[in-house]
Design goal:
single chain, 222 residues, mainly alpha
Amino acid sequence: MINTTMTPPIYLRREPRWPAAVALAAVACMSIALAPGLSIGPPWLFPAIVGLLLTPTVILHRAGHHTMDRWFGVATTAVVTLELVAALIRLLTALPSRRESPKALLLSASSIWLANLLVFALWYWRLDAGGPHGRDTRASHTSGAFLFPQMTMTPEAKSATGQNRWSPTFVDYLFLAFNTSTAFSPTDTPALARWGKALMMLQSLISLTVLAVLAARAINIL
């Protein structure tokens, strides 16, 4: 008889999830910093929606249902991404109309830029090499959508620097997202997969657009 029972994966590490949760909470609060004319509904509405989506994710993660946890996490990240793009469109629409004060527009643009950084860090962290659950099943990180410097080290160098069991965490993807938003290109971590390149191009485009809005508003103030 053929045994069709699936063997559960063996987790060799437990990457902390709280940095990603903090980043998601920060993005959810973006609507609070937006000017009144740039948000849809009351300021508490979007954080409440994200909270409702995040609750089953936390419950499923603690219960060990990692596949469903992953899909709920992707859905939550997709929702905050759509709100990010919608907020950027509303900002660009409000700029020539002068309905909002310069201070409100600058604060809104700054919050959108920060949200852009955190949202794409969440995407990189969630999708690379099977996500955090997939990376937890491997003894070390040797392949993925991004080429981290530790992946190019020789076994001797890894042993000498204590990187034998190295695997990227949320901070590594946050650093990648920060470089993409500021340098508009990879610095020490190039993208290998096409989806990674597409996400980095989109992140750079959003960041460049927001910075152009900030510059235009500053010049107008002067």
